[in-house]
Write a structure and sequence with these properties.
Chain B: Its EC number is 2.7.7.4. Chain B: It comes from Acetivibrio mesophilus. The complex is a heterodimer of chains A (about 240) and B (about 290). The longest helix of chain A has 17 residues. Helix content of chain A is about 30%, strand content about 15%. Chain A is of the alpha/beta class and about 240 residues long. A six-stranded mixed beta sheet of chain A has the order 2-3-1-4-5-6, sandwiched between helices. In chain A, strand 2 and strand 3 form a beta hairpin. In chain B, the strands form two sheets. In chain B, strands 5-4-3-2-1-6-8-7 form an eight-stranded mixed beta sheet. A two-stranded antiparallel sheet of chain B has the order 9-10. By secondary structure, chain B is α/β, with parallel strands linked by helices. Classes of the chains: A alpha/beta (about 240), B alpha/beta (about 290). Chains A and B meet through helix 2, strand 2 and helix 4 of A and helix 1 of B.
C-alpha cells in the first residue's frame, strides 16, 4: 500500500491577477491533465473566437467561462514525486469572498498572486488579512505577469518592499517572492531564462518545499463527541 | 495514519454529522463503486448498522447485473432499500433508447425528475420487504431533507466546486455562486423550508483512492468493473444505452489500480465512456443544475 503524503494549498489574490492561470499552467507543464483536456479547451476557445486561457482548465462553469472569472473555489488534484496535492483555486472578486474563505480554511499553505504591472490591490491586502486570520503560516508571494514589465528586477523589488511591509503588519512572513509569468510559463515548472537575476525556487520547487502539518496523533489530544445513539436491532446490545 | 485512513476518518465524521442533523435523511446508492464505498463507510460509522435508507433511481435501462447485485447486498447487509422511478415517462416511452428523446432529456426525465419526486415523496417509493425479498410501495412519503451522495471533486468540473454540505432550493436548483461558507469542520446544516441538503462525504477522494480503499477493505464490488474474458470492462457504470465499456484486461482490483497508476488509463478521464457528458458540451453542469448528481 502506497502511503503518500497529501497536502492542501490555496491560491489567493486580487481579481485578474492570474490565480487560475498559475494552476492551469502548472497542471499543463507537469503533464497532470487528462489526455485531450488541453486540446478540448483550445478547441472551445477557437470555436467561440476567444483567446486561449489556461484558466479555462479550472473555470469549468459556463458562467465562469462567459465572464472570464472564477466564481467558486475549485479543487484540483496534482502530484509531484514528493507528495499529492489538492490545490484550491479561490475566487478574487469581493462578492465571492466567502468562497475564498471556504477554500483557504482547508489549506496548509498559501500562494498569494500579485500582478506586477497593477501592483498591490484591495483584495491582495484583504486576502493577506484573511490568510493571517485563518492561521496559515506558510505564504509565498507570486509576482505574476513579469512579461508585462519586461522582467524588471526593480519592479519585482519594489513589490517585495511594499507588500512585504504590509504582510509584516498582519503577521505574515513570506517564505519567498517568486517572479513569474503564468501565461508564458516563466518560473512555474522551469527556471526562466528571462529572470537570471532571480536565484530562488520555481513555483513547483516551492510547493515541495512547504512543510506539511503534523499528524493528528502528534497534536494535543482531542475527542469530539458527535452524538450518542444505540442500535438494538438484531439483538445488538453494544 | 496514511492517506486512506485520513480520507476514511473525514468521511465518517461527515456521515455522523449528517445523521445527527437531519431527521429525514437518505443515501443515494447508484450501485457503482463510489456509492458502494460510501455504504461501506456508513456501516463503519454506525458499527455495522446502516440507520439511513438507501435510495436507488431505477431507469430500467440499468445493466441487469447491477440490479441483481443491489438486491443481494441489500439482503445480506439488512439495508432499508428503496427505489424510485419515472413510471410515466417509461410507460409513454419518452426515452432516448425508444428514440423519443435526446440523451440529455432522457437523463433529465429518468434520473433527475425521478430523483426529485422520489426524494420529495410525491411519487411512489418502493421499499424492500426483507421477509419476501420483494419490493412493495413504501407507506412513508415524508420528504427527505438530507441526501448523502458519493460524488468526487476530481470527476468533473462542476463537481470540483461542491461543498461537503450543499443546499438545493425548492426547484432542486443549485446556486453555485451563493454557496454557504464552510470553515474547517463546521458545516452549515440549517436551511430554509422546502430546500434540501446534499451531503458529499467523498469529495476529496480520487478514483485511485476509491480503488485502493476497495482493495484494502475487500469491499464487494459488482463484477461489471472487471474483464470477464472479452477484453472489456466498465470504468463507470450507468444505463447501458449511454455507457460504454473500455478496452481493458484488468480482472481484479489490483490490476485496476495498476492500470490507473501507470497503465493506459493514467491520463484518461474516468467518465470518458459516458455519452451524456459530451452532449452537455464536455461537462455535466446543465444536468447537475437540474438535479442530476
Amino acid at each position: 500500500m502506497d502511503t503518500r503524503e497529501q497536502m492542501n494549498i490555496v491560491i489567493v489574490g486580487h481579481v485578474d491577477h492570474g490565480k487560475s492561470t498559475v494552476i492551469g499552467r502548472l497542471l499543463a507543464d507537469t503533464g497532470s491533465l487528462p489526455e485531450g483536456k488541453l486540446d478540448s479547451v483550445k478547441e472551445y476557445c477557437r470555436k467561440n473566437s476567444r483567446p486561449f486561457e489556461y484558466a479555462f482548465l479550472l473555470d469549468a462553469l459556463k458562467d465562469e467561462q462567459a465572464q472570464g472569472i472564477t466564481i467558486d473555489t475549485a479543487r484540483c488534484f496534482f502530484k509531484t514525486s514528493k507528495r499529492d496535492y489538492i490545490i484550491i483555486d479561490a475566487p478574487g472578486h469581493i462578492e465571492f469572498l466567502k468562497n475564498m474563505v471556504t477554500g483557504a480554511s482547508r489549506a496548509e499553505a498559501a500562494l498569494l498572486v500579485i500582478d506586477a504591472k497593477e501592483g498591490i490591490k484591495e483584495n491582495s491586502k484583504r486576502h493577506g488579512h484573511i490568510v493571517s486570520m485563518l492561521g496559515i503560516k506558510q505564504v509565498v508571494v507570486l509576482v505574476n505577469k513579469m512579461d508585462l514589465v519586461d522582467f524588471s528586477k526593480e519592479v519585482y523589488e519594489s513589490i517585495i518592499s511594499e507588500f512585504g511591509e504590509f504582510l509584516q503588519k498582519v503577521n505574515i512572513k513570506p517564505i519567498n517572492f517568486i517572479p513569474i509569468s503564468a501565461f508564458n510559463g516563466d518560473n512555474i515548472a522551469q527556471k526562466s531564462p528571462n529572470t537570471l537575476w532571480y536565484e530562488g525556487p520555481t513555483v513547483l520547487e516551492q510547493l515541495d518545499g512547504f512543510v506539511n502539518k503534523k499528524e493528528n496523533r502528534q497534536l494535543p489530544f482531542r475527542m469530539p463527541v458527535q452524538d450518542i445513539y444505540k442500535f438494538t436491532e438484531e439483538g445488538d446490545d453494544r | 495514519m496514511n492517506h486512506l485512513d485520513k480520507l476514511e476518518a473525514q468521511s465518517i465524521y461527515i456521515l455522523r454529522e449528517a445523521y445527527r442533523e437531519f431527521k429525514n435523511i437518505c443515501m443515494l446508492w447508484s450501485i457503482g463503486k463510489d456509492s458502494t464505498v460510501l455504504l461501506w463507510l456508513a456501516r463503519k460509522a454506525f458499527f455495522g448498522h446502516v440507520p439511513i435508507p438507501l435510495v436507488h433511481i431505477d431507469t430500467h435501462y440499468k445493466i441487469p447485473e447491477m440490479i441483481k447485485y443491489r438486491d443481494e447486498l441489500a439482503i445480506k447487509w439488512k439495508l432499508t432499500m428503496i427505489y424510485g422511478e419515472n413510471s410515466e415517462a417509461l410507460a409513454q416511452k419518452k426515452t432516448f433508447p425508444d428514440g423519443n428523446a435526446d440523451r440529455l432529456t432522457c437523463c433529465q426525465m429518468l434520473k433527475s425528475e425521478a430523483l426529485k419526486n422520489t426524494l420529495s415523496g410525491e411519487w411512489n417509493r418502493y421499499v424492500m420487504d426483507h421477509k419476501t425479498g420483494k419490493y412493495v410501495v413504501d407507506s412513508n412519503r415524508e420528504k427527505y431533507t438530507g441526501v448523502i451522495v458519493g460524488v468526487r471533486a476530481d470527476e468533473e468540473g462542476s463537481r470540483s466546486k461542491e461543498r461537503y454540505f450543499s443546499p438545493r432550493d425548492k426547484e432542486n436548483d443549485w446556486a453555485v455562486e451563493d454557496q454557504p461558507p464552510e470553515f474547517w469542520n463546521q458545516f452549515k446544516t440549517d436551511f430554509a423550508p422546502g430546500t434540501h441538503i446534499r451531503i458529499h462525504p467523498l469529495l476529496d477522494w480520487t478514483e485511485l483512492n476509491i480503488w485502493e480503499y476497495i482493495e484494502r477493505e475487500n469491499i464487494p464490488i459488482t463484477s461489471l468493473y472487471f474483464d470477464q474474458g472479452d477484453g472489456k470492462r466498465y470504468r463507470s457504470l450507468g444505463c447501458y444505452p449511454c455507457t460504454f465499456p473500455v478496452e481493458s484486461t484488468a480482472k481484479n482490483v489490483s490490476e485496476i489500480i495498476e492500470e490507473l497508476k501507470s497503465g493506459k488509463f493514467a491520463n484518461i478521464a474516468e467518465r470518458s465512456g459516458r455519452a451524456q457528458d459530451k452532449d452537455d458540451g464536455g461537462g455535466l453542469e446543465t444536468l447537475r443544475r437540474g438535479g442530476y448528481m
